[in-house]
Amino acid sequence: MLRTITLGSCVSVQGLVVGNTPDGKLMVRVDDKTFVGYPVTVGRA
């Protein structure tokens, strides 16, 4: 599943989910790199 995570206040990464961490972060893979960050929530108007 494709998900977007935030790595900092201004940096986001979108990739395939490869796992979760106990503190609520997601691990996503982009090419050969894995990033860990908080998932972006969808705001509804």
Question: Could you give a short description of this structure?
Answer:
The chain has strands at residues 2-6, 12-20, 26-30, 33-39. By secondary structure, it is mainly β. It has one domain (2-35).
Structural description of this entry:
The structure is a single chain. The protein is an all-beta fold. The chain has one domain (2-35). The chain has strands at 2-6, 12-20, 26-30, 33-39. The chain has a four-stranded antiparallel β-barrel with strand order 1-2-3-4.
Features:
single chain; 45 residues; mainly beta; four-stranded antiparallel barrel; 4 strands; 0% helix; globular; Translation initiation factor 2
Mean pLDDT: 93
Number of strands: 4
SSE ordering: EEEE
The count of domains is: 1
**End-to-end span in angstroms?**
24 Å
**How is the biggest beta sheet arranged?**
4 strands, antiparallel, barrel
Could you tell me the strand content as a percent range? Answer: over 45%
The proportion of residues forming helix, as a percent range, comes to under 10%
Structural class: mainly beta
Radius of gyration of CA atoms, rounded to a whole number: 10 Å
Total helices: the number is 0
Globally, the shape reads globular
- Stretches with pLDDT under 50, minimum 5 residues: none
Strand order of the largest sheet: 1-2-3-4
